[in-house]
Specification:
Distance between the termini: 45 Å
Structural class: alpha+beta
Number of strands: 5
Low-confidence stretches: none
Mean pLDDT: 88
Oligomer: single chain
Order of helices and strands: EEEHEHEH
Strand content: 15-25%
Helix content: 25-40%
Shape: globular
Length: 109
């Protein structure tokens, strides 16, 4: 399992912020949420939550901090990134098809 940050560094203005933007991604939603919290990212900033595309857009200072905290730097559009996203799609598909555990009542009425 892992957390990744790409090197897209696309120049864009978002609100008042003019910066170079990249993507923070992870193998699981839980990993992404935990790492984003360590970075100080607002949970509302997540993009495409609950899908294989879920990520946070991060500026260069957050990208650098993510790498210092242990995120793996990956090349935008690389085979490595494509493989990670493919595996995430497959995991989400399996999770949707697994039967849900039936909750047993504590007592009969």
């Amino acid at each position: 399992m892992g957390v990744y940050v790409d090197d897209m560094r696309m120049p864009a203005k978002v609100g008042r912020i003019q910066a170079n933007w990249s993507h923070l991604m992870a193998d699981t939603t839980e990993e992404l949420e935990a790492f984003a919290a360590k970075l100080g990212l607002n949970p509302r900033w997540i993009q495409y939550p609950g899908t294989w595309k879920e990520h946070y857009d991060v500026t260069d200072p957050y990208r650098e901090k993510a790498i210092r905290l242990g995120a793996e730097a990956v090349e935008y559009g690389s085979k490595e990134m494509a493989t990670m996203r493919k595996l995430k799609r497959e995991l989400l598909a399996v999770a949707k098809t697994e039967p849900k555990e039936e909750i047993q009542p504590l007592f009969d009425l």
